[in-house]
Design goal:
With 290 residues, the chain is α+β, with helices and mostly antiparallel strands. The protein folds into four domains: 70 residues, no CATH class; 56 residues, Classic Zinc Finger (Double Stranded RNA Binding Domain, 2-Layer Sandwich), CATH 3.30.160.60; 54 residues, 2-Layer Sandwich (Double Stranded RNA Binding Domain); 29 residues, no CATH class. The protein has ten helices and 18 strands. Strands 1-2 form a two-stranded antiparallel ribbon. A two-stranded antiparallel sheet has the order 3-4. A two-stranded antiparallel sheet has the order 5-6. InterPro entries: Znf_C2H2-type, Znf_C2H2_sf, Znf_C2H2_type. This is Putative zinc finger protein 85. Its main location: nucleus.
Length: 290
Amino acid sequence: DTSYQFRATKDIWFKCCFCAYVTTDQHEIISHLASHGIEQFKCQHCSVLFDSMSELQCHSQRHRSDMSSKCPSSPKLSPRKQVCLTHTNTYKCQRCHLAFKEHGGLTKHYQTHLAEKPFKCKLCPKAFAHRGSLTNHSRIHTGEKAYKCEQCPKAFIRNSDLTAHNRMHTGEKPYKCELCSRAFTRQSTLAGHIRTHTGNKPYKCKQCPKAFAQHYNLTVHSRIHTREKPYECKLCPRAFAQNIALTLHNRTHTSERPSYKCKLCPKAFTWLSTLTSHIRSHTGNKPYKC
């Protein structure tokens, strides 16, 4: 919505909610946000849509809570204790099976069914159903990272991001694909991976015929057209379209040794693709035919 009124001052930088893009121009950020499209997260139990994975996870806890509890007024299993209260006295949602002891709980839940999002960001067009979601979103603009990792210097805007990051230290990958042996630290990553099995590619490039199974891949691909390189090296003028490329480049400035070592000779390489090509010099494999 280009008519959205921003609180524009010289001190405000408008930061994209989906990638590292920043600008001082309010019209540029609107155009950039539109390039991402609308990515919503759908509840598998009641089909309600959410703007972020953290909102979906919070909502999903209501479905997972006490899945095996028996209703005292009915012999059937109830998916949640609150549902049993519909046989006594409670506030029942007219859109789904959930019910609540207090009217305030019903009011907060009902907003997930409506387009109403009363908590609006003052720095960009986004709006949210809950105040807590707006608070988390606002940190994108302020740069505040309240959730700090206890095992490394990294910090995060959302607690859910910290939780996912901690799995890198523990090695935990709780989201397993039922179609292959792969597992992931995030549910959203698993959802994108499953599309590689189904062939579904909902994220289409507006500049060329390409389409992608995951929104992130479309974002990276779009930079081919825009020539945007948001990841800048702090030690030299180089910039990159992907964060992983910057990470690998930074090794050229430090004493950090290359990560990918050949098992057949003492050589080591910064890039996995370079190691793969090098190994062919040992095996004699020539996969690329004229």
